[in-house]
Write a structure and sequence with these properties.
The chain has 431 residues and is of the alpha/beta class. It folds into two domains: 307 residues, Rossmann fold (3-Layer(aba) Sandwich), CATH 3.40.50; 108 residues, Dihydrodipicolinate Reductase, domain 2, CATH 3.30.360.10. 39% of the residues lie in helices and 18% in strands. It is built from 16 helices and 14 strands. The strands form three sheets. An eight-stranded mixed sheet has the order 1-14-9-8-7-2-5-6, sandwiched between helices.
Amino acid sequence: MKQILRGKEILPATNKLGVLITGIGSVTTTLMAGVFAARKGLARPLGSVTQIGKIQLGKRDKNHYVPIKEFVPLTSLDDIVFGGWDIYPDSAYKAAIKANVLKSEHIDIVKSDLEKIKPMTAVFNKNYVKNLNGKHIKKGNNNMDLAEQLMVDIDTFKKENNIDRLVMCWAGSTEAYVQTSKVHYSLKEFEEGLKNNNPAISPSQIYAYAALKKKIPYVNGAPHLTTDCPALMELANKNKVAVCGKDFKTGQTLIKSILAPGLNARLLGVSGWFSTNILGNRDGEVLDDPESFKSKELSKLGVLDSILNPDVYPELYKDLYHKIRINYYPPRGDNKESWDNIDIFGWMDYPMQIKINFLCRDSILAAPVLLDLILFTDLAQRANMYGILDWLSFYFKSPVTEEGLYPENDLFAQRDKMENTLRYLMKEKLK
């Protein structure tokens, strides 16, 4: 389904913006702590396009750059109210301590803000995340009952916090791989499936259904199937709701989407690209299950083909061997380490190699991505844009697109499209 813009003026970002997040874990608590610290002037929101990015306007020779948060009417950080669900009952403060991403002194400066955020009971199905065992979960007669309980949670959160607008985000664990089946082909079939506990409907899809029924935009930060099926896109279209996804582009894949366009631009061949990772946070524990890893693997594997385009340059990329490994290593915690070995060839087919060792902090990279997606998705909804927001592909490993279109994974092309969408919204000349 197409992303649709009706041409109306953008509604102002008045009052508070509610942000409901599924999964109050390492990424979410890092985001919350950073936002609260930034409000107090105690931290800089580095990595966030919405907070420190600038956009060029007018002719290039004028060198005129404007802060994005002054160019488009974004919600202020002061006006964000956080809430969410988790299978563990810990407050955001306790969850941040357990996540061990931030130093205790950085968590303690916003302790009172984090302690106020206590997760609601979550929808959980162990068949979809086999390596977690939380007990803070909802019980219901069927999955439709669980969806309706989520909608009650949404209404309660809105009322208690005097909120008009909401964005819902999945920042929870990667679910087991599932393909679209009959239950996903129409909204009618999907709603029957909810009532009958169809096993092909995942918890993330129950959350997405609840959000779209309440006309709340939905951001999928994980690689599994959620809104990218006909049934939920039918609901998004019917209720005129924006959706985007999937799988936050942070560590190793970010590097691929930076390096691969350069190799392609210089017409250097690639015969092999081997990638491996070690990480020890909850994400690593979940991905230790083969079915959850399959969802992640497919998301990461699709990046190179769409950038290098082997159909156009078969002599350079047709026989590219691409292998990905993720290994759970508890001592590493949230500090993920990735290695890439890239075998390339150039003039007269002489071989060369590139080696990359990236020691990154997964949640530090993901937090500003989640913040930008929240603010840009809210902007899109206020601009009466609905359906797939493919202009936000800049932030995703496996961007969801309209049927029949290939996803754009070149980071620089993605950035150009995002900036041109912002120019278009503000009636500025496109680049």
